[in-house]
Design a protein that fits this description.
The structure is a single chain. The chain has one helix at about 1-20, and strands at about 60-65, 70, 80-85, 110-115, 115-120. The strands form 2 sheets. It has a 3-stranded antiparallel sheet with strand order 1-5-4, with no helix packed on it. A two-stranded antiparallel sheet has the order 2-3. The termini are far apart. The chain is about 15% helix and about 15% strand. By secondary structure, it is α+β, with helices and mostly antiparallel strands.
């Protein structure tokens, strides 16, 4: 019986020792934890304004004489503009996401640009 008590005490002491080594110290982290250096400055902010738009016009092959002759090529987030006759129509079952695509008709207009339908950067 005395041996059983000593075995139990040794087991308990071993568990306490193992638990103590798993305690958090200055360099330990939990999985998935984000660790940062003390007194580290935050990352610098982006320079200048954040803009959403095309860098240059996306011109189609479809001729036009006025803006009303041009439309988005696709019903959702189109990356090109075409003649109204070539535009894919929106149907009753069309569902578009609410995500803004800066290089689509979400943020840029369809116009008649130099005689061709085009998606152009929005005016400032």
């Amino acid at each position: 019986m005395q041996t059983l008590r000593w075995s139990f005490a040794a087991l308990l002491l071993g568990l306490v020792a193992c638990a103590g080594s798993a305690a958090e110290g200055p360099g330990s982290t939990e999985p998935g934890a984000i660790q940062s250096a003390p007194n580290e400055p935050p990352p610098p902010a982006a320079e200048g304004p954040i803009t959403c738009g095309l860098p240059a016009p996306v011109v189609s092959e479809d001729p036009c004489t006025k803006d009303a002759e041009c439309a988005p090529a696709e019903p959702c987030h189109a990356h090109a503009c075409v003649a109204v006759a070539h535009a894919k129509p929106r149907t009753p079952d069309t569902v578009c996401s609410t995500m803004l695509d800066c290089k689509s008709v979400d943020a840029n207009p369809c116009v008649c640009h130099q005689g061709r339908c085009a998606l152009v950067p929005k005016p400032n």
